[in-house]
Amino acid sequence: MNATKESLIAEIEKRVSDKILEQSNADLLIKLIKNADSLDEAINIAALGTTYKRTGLHFDKRLEKMSDTIKYFKKNEKLSFHTDDNKPTHKLIIGDNYEALQNLLIQYRGKIDVIYIDPPYGKDSMGEFAKTNYQNAITRDNLLSMLYPRLVLAKQLLSDSGVIFCSIDDRNFSYVRCLFDEVFGENRFVCNYIWHKKTGASDAKGIAVITEYILVYCNNEDPSNWNDIFTQNYESFDTKRYRFTDEYKDERGNYYPDNLDRGGLNYSDSMNYGIECPDGKIAFPNGRTKYENDGWIWKWSKEKVKWGIENGFIEFRKSKDKPCGWSVCYKNYLYVDNENNPIKRSAPFKNLITGILNGEGTEDIKDIIGKNIFKNPKPIELISYLIKSVNKYSPIILDFFAGSGTTGHAVLDLNRSEAKEGDLLNDKTPEGNRTFILCQLNEKTDTTPNGIAYDVTTKRLKRIMTGECYDGSNNFEWIKKNKPYGGNLDVYEIVGVSNFEWTNGKTPFDVIDETLYGKEKFATIKEKIEWVCSNFDKTQKYLEQVKQED
Asked: Do residue 315 and residue 417 come from a single domain?
């Protein structure tokens, strides 16, 4: 539901009834909300009442303040490339992700299906703004202060059934979980993935930590809808079990037999009948040769057994243990169900992820970019696992802490794997149609003197999508073992223009390109001015810390 002043006031009043806010503080907030000049200002005022000491989540929030500089997207033509207009066009945004999210809201508000983030929660890789000192009191946790406004923007980008995943370590898990509860609502919490990321840590002091966590929240608060939002894991069953073949293999796949009879409390006399075996003997449930009520019945009705025999779904197997001499079995095929309908065998995704090791991400980067250039990249198999768990057709996937670009790599790989899976099932399935949007600050490090975005993210995407570097060379290991994914990449930089700039050719209306925001070129300058004025006021905001009293 879109926020209004009335809904914000109702939420403040609810916090009083929940004994989270004192009445006097609530009265002041309500007065300020009523007199706010805009809805955005009212939302910021309401945020002052969401620091819950009751839950232990208390930190210094940074609120938005207006500046006179409009931030906007400018396309980097040198880094952008197109290989096939029939394939999706992906985006990489270089710059502060707060400003990137503000700009994305202009085109993608309520349209993002999946968000994955891996925020910089390690104390040695936080950056100046988000540095975390584990000796600090909770009230000074800059990680939370950095994440809060970005999550508020991210929530506005998510579709009504969108899903957000957040990787986090065990030190920060509890605090970040509380922050997500605050921004998205505790009723939108789906689960916490436990990722078994490495097999051992022999050099650890005390207890070795070999797991990490991934928070999962759905923008739809009704759990009854989650069955449609989350898909099934089609790789969860053991194909080795399907080891028998028959004349239907090409259309039904391999099969395994299962006994048609069963015992149990739910006895039905109509399911206790005789079935004629190949030698003319009559088999009853539990191997009997005559009718009696011993609690055993057939799993299928008489009519379905007749259909099963006629269509090759029933198999008679000789058995010395059965008085009738036969076991009556039904066939479980790999590609069809027991009514001959096409099926993809699956089970629900579980919240324990095993078999994907963190070191695989390091190997990927080494083969694509080089050794020791980027620390601790996530493996593409992990991100693929998460994306596949969301049941979306042609989804848009956003990662605003893109790092080396693993999420983009995972999307490209999933698109291709869908075509391979279709071939396996005798179905001409085209490549997947997912698109990614990545945001990465061009932070400079000892191993990336030109910045992470220039030295790692763009180079990785260029190499795996086209098979060559920007300079035309192809002397990297990955291309020797893989085929380029193809596709298109538009690279944007975040730049600024003063809102009072009126020099001819340099005004905001001149320099902002509406086509980068999904718009056709405006026919008149009047239309362009109206669009800029109604959309880019929010991109003039910067963050200012507001200290709360303990």
From this structure: no
